[in-house]
């Protein structure tokens, strides 16, 4: 753990040393200096620079007409409020070293000069900090696309189905089964009993003989008597 802490301290020292060795001097407004004359945009001038710790900014101006005030924060800076500056410079050739990260707000305290644009915001970014995320994440869509109010209508069924035939085809009449009367009577193969031969009783035979004889006598009597 101690080794890690020592390594971090060493790294910070190396970074500071590198920044000191690479320190630069910047004249505010370049050749125009610190003034209200001309069309000087100090905001654009500062945005084009890469300020670091230990850099030096130089304000050159006519001390009879201008001065330099360092103010507390962005709100005071935007209001051009010169009532309570942190520091005031009046030499006409002021050299200020940037000793900490963040924004450094400067303005001219002569009434009306700040409002004319004689002010500058110098930012020294901290390389150890990653860029801060956006203050507001992209807002989600407030409303998802609404579905169609009416779904595609289904095909309309046919209003009337084909009418069924009024009379169904006449079914063929069942074939007439042969009736019992039409069918030939079954032939009985059973042999019929032969007529029993009745034996004439002697009484019946006698009666016939007697009748025949009587008839013969009667015929004879008619023709010959």
UniProtKB/TrEMBL annotation:
Coiled coil: none annotated. Residues 121-202 are annotated as: Disordered. PROSITE patterns: PHYTOCYANIN (PS51485). Keywords: Copper, Electron transport, Glycoprotein, Metal-binding, Signal, Transport. GO terms for molecular function: electron transfer activity; metal ion binding. Residues 144-160 have a biased composition (Pro residues). Residues 161-202 have a biased composition (Low complexity). Residues 1-23 form the signal peptide. One of its GO terms (cellular component) is plasma membrane. The keyword Metal-binding applies. The keyword Electron transport applies. Pfam families: Cu_bind_like. Residues 24-126 form the Phytocyanin domain. Gene3D superfamilies: Cupredoxins - blue copper proteins. InterPro entries: Cupredoxin, Phytocyanin-like, Phytocyanin_dom. This is Mavicyanin-like.
